[in-house]
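Justification of resources, computational component.

The compute hours requested in this renewal are based largely on the per-chain cost of generating structure records like the one below. Each record pairs the submitted sequence with a full structure-token output. That output is archived, and it is also reused by downstream analysis tasks.
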Amino acid sequence: KCVFGYFLPISFTGKEEFMRKRIFRIIMSLAILLLVILSGMLAYSYFNVERAVSRSYQKSGLKAAKNESKEEVLKGKKPLVVLLLGTDTGALDRDYKGRTDSIMVLVLNPRTKKSTIVSIERDFQVNFPQYPQYSPSKINAAYTYGGVKLLSQTLDRYFKIPVNTYALINMGGMKSIIDQLGGVDITPLLSFDYGDYSYKKGVTTHMNGDKALEYCRMRYDDPEGDYGRQKRQRQVLTAIIKSGADVQSLLKPAFLNSVSSQVRTDLTFSDLTQMAKSYRASGDQLETDYTHGTGFNQDGVSYQHISLAERQRISDLVRQAAGLKKVQLANGQ
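The structure output for this chain reads:
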């Protein structure tokens, strides 16, 4: 059985069906994949998974609605809000944290048997009251200055989105997964050269982790910019999911250790066990969305502006998915 079926039971009837869901970003989806691997396969390799989770653990101190901890939310089988982050700036144990190039909010609601994923535009211009010297800035810089906690506070400030827990994955994790699967078949959307590789539009190519990673990274030579890169990232995710990965191949200690070194989360082994038991039904339905913004330049820096009406729409969507009352946002937030 494909491990992706635990939290991402999406029915892919064809490429068109998947491409219609236009907000997936590969790094964030791989963070979900981590949760799948570390929770859905507990019965197969308890010791190896437990050790991998321990290596990935990093405390955050996050608390969300009603000042509840993730442990309280999990124990009560309440809707869980997960902040999924992706970075592409080296090893996660480095001193320099880097920026989160991908930001996604995942709501798992076992009561409605529904999951909601909302992608937040990384270039959204925000102010950090705690760091006025760095304001205004892009929201993806929050992790650099104040870690997961500041990013969570920023989402709460601009969207009134509560966050219970988080998972962060480095792009190296994607490379490890693809290599463990023996590579993936990709049909490039455009022709270009990047890094040590060349890609030809329309020609299906079997890519190893390195080549697929470079295919995902290119941005500035794409006529569609970051939106074009997102399309290519979604392609790779599709290929990973469709590969029908064998569970046993993903349980090898070397592979688990490799992936766990590329991941940080404040979910413990006990938390993931609880999720595997109580939140599996959350995947019966999946709703996806993303923030719609407009680009502008300020002092030579490219930003995205997200209107109050759009922030209100996203806030309402996430809060409703989490079983919370809607709140009116103020223009000054």
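Residues 21 and 288 are 7 Å apart (CA to CA). The chain has a mean pLDDT of 77.
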